[in-house]
């Protein structure tokens, strides 16, 4: 008898990172796996205070249904944040998302037909791969170096494979930590325009810079690159800067795409939580959000430096990686090993990371792995890396 | 040049009810259109208090990412509520939704291939029609009478058209206000089992009974009807009983379907707001939720009676309708008129309702309309119906 589930879902696998979560709950486990913000960075008391101070009128409207696009107040707040990122947009160009992941899914739903080609950088964010796969897309991965996606053959590849979509995390990427330079951003957008492709730019990490800000988003180039206005979509999130729990993100897109995404969202969850929108708008408008960012940047910078130092100390030349300029991750490799095997031994030694195969559309290199410094202090990081190094020698090449 | 939006979204229209929202904001408008809970019924202060009383530990975990299935605590809470509805389920059988609308969309995504047939009752909930259309389904509507969907020819129709899904709001239906008797529930489930069809039961209103509770949900019959366990899915919502703003609902489904829905949700919005789950779990567990329900029932019962009385008083025999036993709606008709034309004149006279065509998959009768008594007191309802009746005579037959 049929179980009614259609084949694409029967054959789907869950997020490899979410599947690892159960191990992170083992007592004493040091997890360098998930990109969960450190609890001490999330201003729970601040959020509690905001709710306590909402007026009866604000609170009453924060209990009710809202527009699919998002509340007027919160969209205005997000337009201001976007302005600071040189995105230069009007509140009406914004769709409030229930987390930026939803933006990937909505774009996949409104653009992709089964068999359509999507370009991604290698490595890339696994939940994006999953959304594109569930939409029936054919995924083609493009090589990258320490500056992110290599663009030299992008135009030629686009002519050959005619992708509808190019998905990028161009700033402090997940998992790579890499940042695409301005010149590559421009070239990528020009190639997209020439080849009738849309760039979906996923930007959850740009506020988390360590010493210098990243180049402006690709979306900010839509007026300077000729005819580019209909060729880029921008999504971002408050999960890494305020709290994942609120499930709030936003999308900027050309009008026809935004309208289609609104229709898809209306059918999906109607709108993002009105209460959470009111909380976030107030928290950002009263300045607490901006005041909190330097603390986040310092914490993550310290974590990244500690992680890199620990890798040098405990693994020396066996491990290769580049130091990230922001974000939550270090992308590294140990030549000649299978990091999935390493993870099994590591879990027994109570330390965790994410094996790199999860981040490739077509995995062929098992030597990569992702480390997150987001949830730990330097001592925890050092302990974790030490445990990983201890079991490394037992992994077969 | 292409606008990148695929045809099914280019041709889609927004929710007819949401499109009416802008008129409801005209000063002095009396809206009998949207099914928005009355502000005085939503316990905003209670929610505020719950947030204020969350311990630091609760609050910290309520800021973080959560599991896609929903938090352990909230699923336990929902299992208890479900128990009271004779649904008899374990917390592990529950998927927490970001509003019950998401359940419709997830089911459509994991079951329906383009061209698959979906059965709905006529009239039915427009946002369900929209979700099925966006999934590329062919929708077939079944006739109903004052007891909801007529089941006498259901088996034959299922044999003929082989639907994958039958969507029902069997209790105090939207828009009909009708309730399917137990015998029809059983017969519908038997027909689904015989014809390899799944019933998607949408139940946002069952707590809002006026004098007597409705029969138990179809999902509660899954063990008593032979082989029925894989043939029903149940979704419900806290939007009508706690607050729409929290965007919280839940789904009960057989394991393979639930697993597929979890994968789809993971790719969509990852999980429902952790903060809102903590709020709702606490609010329900501390008894405030149950304490508040009698007040809701009384308010809506009073509204329904006032509405029916006002229809009698101001429109007499021109209007036909059945008095609902619960819920938020009266489904009515005026023979020989086009209620869309009537609405235009009504808006000019500052009163609103929803024309009935929105609730049919294949509209052929323009004489129906939906009235909601959810947001108004009896005086407001009477004023509204009076205004509608005043312009009724000017509508062409």
Provide structural commentary:
The structure is a homodimer of 397-residue chains. With 397 residues, chain A is an alpha/beta fold. The first copy, chain A, has 15 helices and 15 strands. A 7-stranded mixed sheet of chain A has the order 2-10-9-8-7-3-4, sandwiched between helices. Chain A has a 4-stranded antiparallel sheet with strand order 11-12-15-14, with helices on one face. In chain A, strands 1-13 form a two-stranded parallel ribbon. In chain A, helix 4 packs across helix 12, helix 6 (72-84) packs across helix 12 (274-285) and helix 13 runs parallel beside helix 15. The longest helix of chain A is centred in the C-terminal third of the chain and has 28 residues, at 288-315. The first copy, chain A, starts with 6 loop residues before the first helix and ends in a 5-residue tail after the last helix. The mean pLDDT of chain A is 95. At the A-B interface, helix 4, helix 5, helix 7, helix 8 and helix 11 of A face helix 3, helix 4, helix 6, helix 7 and helix 10 of B.
Task: Give a short synopsis of this structure.
Two copies of one chain form a homodimer. With 397 residues, chain A is α/β, with parallel strands linked by helices.
